[in-house]
Every structure is written in structure tokens, then in C-alpha cells.
Amino acid sequence: MKLGFSKAEEDFRAECADWLDGQMAGEFSDIKGITTLTAKAERRKEWEQQLAAHKWSCIGWPEKWGGRGATLAQQVIFAEEYARAGVPGRVNHIGIELAGPTILTFGTEEQKARFLPDIAAGKTIFCQGFSEPNAGSDLASVRTKARLEGDEWVVNGQKIWTSLAHISDWIFVIARSEEGSQGPKGLTFLMMEIDQPGIDIRPIEQINGDAEFNETFFTDARCAADSLIGAPGEGWKIAMGLLAFERGVSTLGQQMGFRNELDEIIAAARANGSASDPLIRQRLAKAEIGLHLMRYGALRMLSNSDHSKVDGAALTYKIQWASWRRSLGELAMDVLGQAGEIGTGPDYEWDTLPNLFLYSRADTIYGGTNQIQRNMIAERALGMPREPRGVA
């Protein structure tokens, strides 16, 4: 496992930091420090295009498709410096980190030419159409249907928790294309343009006042017959490949964001005197240790070159960071005390730490609940018997 970086890699870090800091102090200073995904959405689309113009949008992609062909170490460094500079989360995270790599891996050359340049350029924003009201973490239970009519797929059904669908241009959808099929069989992976009469987007307001995700309804929505990735019935395989990209180098950037949050909690504890409380100090120390352990675990996971074996680190990482951050949110509120219960801005515009607490309540749910993660660890990593499906 590689724990350090070479001089050349540290020089690359300096280049990243210099450019990002310059942007956040200059033309794009108005978006620095934004912690919600919907704030200043149009301005952040401009930021996506600024990243692309300077070849920072998708540095791990091949140069042919708008990337830099960056090494794994360089991708990790950029993700860390991106978070360290206080740059807000990418509104095209789904396109850059999930849709793009999926097309690169499973798509045809025609599909790569059709989608990748505009994703890399920040001109096409993608969202994800997986979860449904009765198929959240259980993706194999989706009921949205797709049927082929002539040269088009016709889709009917409902998706939920569709992050940023209301500002996206395209959505990739898992739909059941084989009548009577069950479980992972008979699913197809489709790329669909959102701006069409058959797709209805309805925002869902969150506990922190944001409306990041949506209900998405499909009523005879259509896409071209060649808009599927892979072949009909291969949707499960494509989806599993896509979800593997979710545990990529962005995890290190995510941890740098956690570092910023923990530093703000420590500063608040020192400012209001709660740092003198031995229990608070103990919890701060535990959070610090946990953050370091996550970093080493992520480095180990990313250093694994044998993808033929089940990677226990990859399976445990999500439950590890989600549980840690939920506890971090609780620590933040205990440090702030009553001051954390009062919003300083209008209409649920919370400061960073109260917003951390409210948002982190969902961390152990989205992307696979903690319960689902434990099943995966038990069955795939430890080889334990599968949990009984259904009731006799």
C-alpha cells in the first residue's frame, strides 16, 4: 500500500492547489464554501465548464475524451486539493464519476463520441435513475418497464431520490425490459434525455431545507433504440459495474471535506470553551483517529490491483464513513449547544455545522443502507450464507 507521494506528484499537488485557490479567490469566489448541492446551480454549471476549459474536469479520463490520462495518485491529489480549497461539490458528479466511466467501459465507440465530449465539457449534466419507492437499496426489485417499439424504447414507471434531476439534461435508467422477469434478470440500462413530455420531475424538500433530490415519473417517455448501454437484459451487469466506480478516487476528496468539517468543529469547541469538557475532547480525538483510519483504508482499497477477488475494504468503506460522519454531526451539535439550534439566515439557511448534522442523518441510508452494507460484507466478503429472500 502506497502511503506517500513522490516529488513529481507533490509538484502536481502544488499545481492543482495554485489553480484552484486562484479560482476561488478570483472569478469564482462567489461559490467558495457552498455546502448544499442546489445553491447557485447555474453558476456552478459555469464552474463545470471552467474546469473543462482548463482540463481539470475529468483528469482520469483518456485525453481523447477530454481528460488528462492522469495516474491514480494524481486523481487522488486533485480530489484532495479540490476539497481543501473549499470548492463546492460537483453538480455533474454523476456524469463525471459514474456515467462517463460506465460509457468508457461498456459503451460503443459511437456512444463514447456521442456522450463523453459534452460530459467532459460540462455541457451535459447527468443524474441517476435507479431507486424506486419499493426498490431503494434492493435494485433487483425495480418495476419501471421499458419496451421496444420500432426504433425507440418506451419507458413507464417511477424513480425516486433522483439527485439533481431538476437541473440535469440526461438520466440513465434501469428498467425491466423482459415481461415477467424477476430479480436481476431482464433489466436494461438506458440513457434518456430529460427534457421531453413523458418525464415529470417533482422536487422533494429535505430536513435541511434543500431540495437536492426528486421523484421522477415516466409516462411513455422515449429514447432511441441505440441508447442502451450493453445489450437488452444486461442492465444488472452494467449497473454493478457503475456502482464499482462509486468507490473510486473521489473517496479521498470526500475525506478532505470531512477534514474541513472536523476542523470547524474543533475551532468551535475552542471558541466556546467546550473543548475543556473531557468527554468532548475524547469524542474529538475519536473522530480524528477515525478519519485517519478511513484514509488508510481508502488508500488500501485503491491500491488493490487484483480486481478478480472480493475487496473487503471496498465493501466496508461505505458503512465506515457513513457511520463516522453521522456521529460527527451529533458531535457538532453537542459542541455548539443551544446556539446550533438557531438558524442565522432566513428559511432554513443553516450554517455549516447544523447543516452537517441534518444532512448526515441520511448518510447511513443513501447509496445502500447500513443494513444492506452489512449483508454485503457478510455474504460477499465473509462467505456467510445468504439471507433468506421472501417468506415461505
Automatic annotation (TrEMBL):
Annotated Acyl-CoA dehydrogenase/oxidase N-terminal domain residues: 8-123
Domain Acyl-CoA oxidase/dehydrogenase middle intervals: 127-219
Name recorded for this polypeptide: Acyl-CoA dehydrogenase
Domain Acyl-CoA dehydrogenase/oxidase C-terminal: 233-381
InterPro entries: Acyl-CoA_Oxase/DH_mid-dom (IPR006091), Acyl-CoA_Oxase/DH_mid-dom_sf (IPR046373), AcylCo_DH-like_C (IPR036250), AcylCo_DH/oxidase_C (IPR009075), AcylCoA_DH/ox_N (IPR013786), AcylCoA_DH/ox_N_sf (IPR037069), AcylCoA_DH/oxidase_NM_dom_sf (IPR009100), Mycobact_Acyl-CoA_DH (IPR052161)
Similarity field: Belongs to the acyl-CoA dehydrogenase family.
One GO MF term: oxidoreductase activity, acting on the CH-CH group of donors
Record keywords, A-Z: FAD, Flavoprotein, Oxidoreductase
Cofactor: FAD
PANTHER family attached to this UniProt entry: ACYL-COA DEHYDROGENASE, ACYL-COA DEHYDROGENASE FADE29
GO cellular component, one term: plasma membrane
